[in-house]
């Protein structure tokens, strides 16, 4: 009974690591990169008995020749090989049980994720209220970009010539009666 639960927890860890970082992964097969991550995150690699090179060699041994992934059964066989190498003083089954306990219930650790730091230099350079010249025209009063309207000069073609500033003034000039002139 305990063995069934133990295998389920191990299989769950296998699935979690198999889908890590791959949106198309189904969780039934694991890539070599995720295999290495599993061994690092769960403490299988100790730097003395088992190194990253050992993990890669075992992965190459257990996978099929034409495949780049391993199945759950191949995963267990690979763990068995690593267990015998890591725990030389224990029997094969005891060593496998120890390695299975290391992996059971674990999830991938996300480390080294870069966070944005708000430094005074960056905030000064990105403050749109201090922009001048043509760069100032790209943003409205709130600091939001105007999009294409801020990047491209939109030509006003409504006047007699483009850019005519006194639009609509001709009619006023013609209809305005001039004093002292006979009509």
From TrEMBL:
Q: Name one GO molecular function term.
A: tubulin binding
Q: Note the InterPro entries from the entry.
A: EF-hand-dom_pair, TPP/p25
| Keyword annotations | Cytoplasm
Which GO biological process entries does UniProt record here? microtubule bundle formation; microtubule polymerization; positive regulation of protein polymerization
Any one GO CC term of this protein is: microtubule
Q: What is its main location?
A: cytoplasm
Query: What subcellular compartments does it reside in?
Result: Cytoplasm
Describe the family membership recorded for this protein in Swiss-Prot or TrEMBL.
Belongs to the TPPP family.
Do you know which PANTHER family this protein is assigned to?
Answer: P25 ALPHA-RELATED (PTHR12932), TUBULIN POLYMERIZATION-PROMOTING PROTEIN (PTHR12932:SF18)
- Tell me the protein's name: Tubulin polymerization promoting protein
Please give the organism: Amphilophus citrinellus (Midas cichlid)
According to the entry, what is the taxonomic lineage of the organism?
Eukaryota, Metazoa, Chordata, Craniata, Vertebrata
């Amino acid at each position: 009974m305990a063995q069934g639960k133990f295998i389920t927890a191990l299989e769950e860890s296998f699935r979690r690591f198999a889908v890590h970082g791959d949106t198309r992964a189904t969780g039934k097969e694991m890539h070599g990169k995720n295999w290495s991550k599993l061994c690092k995150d769960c403490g299988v690699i100790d730097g003395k008995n088992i190194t990253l090179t050992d993990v890669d060699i075992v992965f190459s041994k257990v996978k099929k020749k034409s495949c780049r992934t391993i199945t759950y059964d191949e995963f267990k066989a690979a763990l068995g090989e690593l267990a015998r190498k890591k725990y030389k003083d224990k029997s094969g089954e005891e060593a496998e049980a120890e390695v299975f306990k290391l992996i059971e219930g674990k999830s991938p650790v996300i480390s080294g994720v870069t966070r944005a730091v708000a430094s005074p230099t960056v905030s000064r350079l990105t403050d749109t209220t201090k922009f001048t010249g043509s760069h100032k025209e790209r943003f409205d009063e709130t600091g939001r970009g105007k999009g294409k309207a801020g990047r491209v000069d939109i030509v006003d073609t409504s006047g007699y010539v483009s850019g005519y500033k006194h639009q609509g003034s001709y009619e006023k000039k013609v209809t305005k009666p001039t004093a002292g002139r006979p009509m």
